[in-house]
Amino acid sequence: MGIAVGIDLGTTNSCVAVVQAQRARVVEDAEGKRIQPSVISFHPGGATLAGQKAKDRLVIDPKNTIYSFKRLLGRKILSEEMQNITDEFPYSVMEGPDGIPVIQARGQELSLPEISAIMLKYLREMCTQTLGVDIDELVITVPANFNDVQRSSTKVAARIAGFNVLRILNEPTAAALAYGFGGQLTEKIAVYDFGGGTFDITIIELMDDIFEVLSTAGETFLGGDDFDEKIVEEMRRQFLFMHRYDLGEDPIAMQRVRTVAERIKCQLSNLDEVEATLREIAYGPGGVAIDFSFKITRTKFESMIEPLVDKSIATCQESLKLAKLDASSLDSLILVGGSTRIPLVRKKVKEFFNKEPRTEINPDEVVAIGAAIHAFSLTGEELPEDLPAPVEPGSGVDSADMLEPVRTSAPMAKPTGARPPPPPIDSTQRIPKLQKTIMGLPAPLESDEPSHEDPGGDLPDVKSQAPPPVIEMEPDPPPVIEMAPESPPPPPVIPSKKAPPPPPVIEMEPDPPPPPIDLVAGEDRVLPKDEKGSFSIPMVSTAAASTLLLDVTPRGLGVATAGGYCDQIIERNAAIPVEQSRLFSTSTDNQVAVAINIFQGESRRVEQNTLLGQVHLSGLRPAQRGEVKIKVVFEIDTDGILGVSAVNEESGEAQDTRIQLLGGLNEDQVNALVSKYSKS
Question: How do residues 44-78 score in pLDDT, each as one tens digit?
Fold first, then answer.
């Protein structure tokens, strides 16, 4: 076992850390950036881009640039939550085998584990380039509320990328590790983790070198993306009112709106009012370009997002109740995730817990740092102080020398017409003491709290979907297992995509011309390359190898029974690793096979829980109903991954047993992807 890194594969951004000279170090890319956007783009020239270069293409080629893919991982595409977000994505999300989502880009279909693997492979090659050492072992983090399919898919993605996964670690636990090492502590802490796509609250008790999770709760569809979407909706409504055209009809225009909305959200953490101008966002009659000026105050923004923040506080109350504690019982409060920089979030959290939160470690990096510390505790090996010279990255996912987009030097043709454009923005009326900074292409400025969008409003309408059929079982006694069975409107606006195209180029399929530069009033907060003066860097204790993590399963687990009920076998917040079993019997005469539906959730009704998969058992002795007994065993390992088996009690053997986790890949598919990316 050699050196291992810790990776926080986030919805919006990813981060890698490693222990060096008894300190946790965040690994930078070739340009010195510590945070990497979780974005993948498929270039028309054949290259696959990841990180910042991929994010730069969001407003050029949104149909082939994939972001927020973590939100789709391990989910059924027909669920209402999935429909809410996939309808707004500019790229194509299709239904694959067993109802799992697949991404279509550049004429190919890719599974979510494969998309995640591309990002992880990029991070691995970044480490090789920066450190000069090829590291193929890691501890990877996931939201505490990730279900078994999502955890398994994450582990498969790391395997495809060439990593050996030492452990899957819950993100809040990783954050606690980053804050807890190096001292003899006995205290109870709350980890409030509000990221780009998910929210978690975890209560942990620290006793010297033992970290015991007392409870965890969260929302897998609540994050900074939803804050962005509130601004996006307001911008769409205002433009629709002014010009009678919905910007949602144009994917490129919408991506520009989302990019600006993200920047506005970040700046409202420091400013009371922000003004943005999107140039040539659409075209009017005769092809006349239309600029769009948008202004919003922090007060307005906070009124829009307050229900979402309150939702996170309600989840905090749930977590305390599960831990049988109240806020006054806690000793410390840790903030994790970029969304915790929003003043309203900090205000609400401080009021609820009645404590000043700890923020001395960068909230965007703390999870990766904790994962690196745990990786060191598992291997006992750290990165040497004297590193070899960095080596060139491999030929897989493009990194520092990624293929540049094909550009045309000719200016974009401007349509003409009788209708004049709206009056230009008066620069003398900008916000006092603010300096307008360029945002957008070709090289967007870094944002210290980037995020992506997830629809949260009433545009557009969502189509309802029927739930999947349920295969029922009945517990014993009498348990049985059944077989699977009004003023005049202005002239309408013409979408910008119908404007005259730029002059053609002779080279390979070109990129679309970059849109005009969008302006956002205010100065971005850009962190310095060396953040030691701003945030503390945890010192890793020599006793790290003796650390014991006692985690819990975030949701109850059970099987479907007769009458549409769910018989829970493992309860929510049960300490892991854990193994539980239950006896069942056949439901019909001469039954020779059973199919057991596995559900996650706390409801007694199966339709209110999440179907994870099935276990099939054949070769049963034909007999009267109820005579043949079947033992169902649930086992959760230290990674929080569930294993289920069904055993014929008469023979003592698990005959022809297989587990098919819905949303996952089978072994042949995984091996094919491992081979594909090991050769690239």
Answer: 988 999 999 999 999 999 999 999 999 898 888 87
pTM, two decimals, is: 0.77
Please give the structure tokens belonging to residue 474.
Answer: 């009945």
Cβ contact 134:125 at 8 Å: no
For the chain, the distance separating the N- and C-terminal CA atoms, rounded to the nearest angstrom, is 25
SS3 655: coil
Tokens 């990593």, residue? 163
* CA dist., res. 114 & res. 103, Å (int): 10
| Residue closest to 3 by CA, chosen among 407, 356, 269, 384 | 384
Largest distance between two CA atoms of the chain: 88
C-alpha to C-alpha distances, 596 to 61, 553, 611, 628, nearest whole angstrom: 44, 21, 11, 15
Over the range 626-657, which residues count as b (16 or more CB within 10 Å of their CB) and which as e?
A: bebebebbbbbeebbbbebbbbbeeeeebeeb
Dist CA 91 CA 72 (whole Å): 13
Query: Residue ranges per domain, the chain?
Result: 552-679
Spell out the residues 6+ positions from residue 669 whose beta carbon is closer than 8 angstroms to its own: 111
Other CB atoms within 10 A of residue 221 CB? 17
Rounded CA-CA distance 174/366 in Å is 8
568-604: b or e for each residue (b if 16 or more CB lie within 10 Å)? bbbebbbebeeebebebbbbeeebeebbbbbbbbeee
Provide the 8-state DSSP code for 387: P
* Architecture category of domain 552-679 in CATH: Sandwich (2.60)
- Phi (first) and psi of residue 122, to 5 degrees: -60, -45
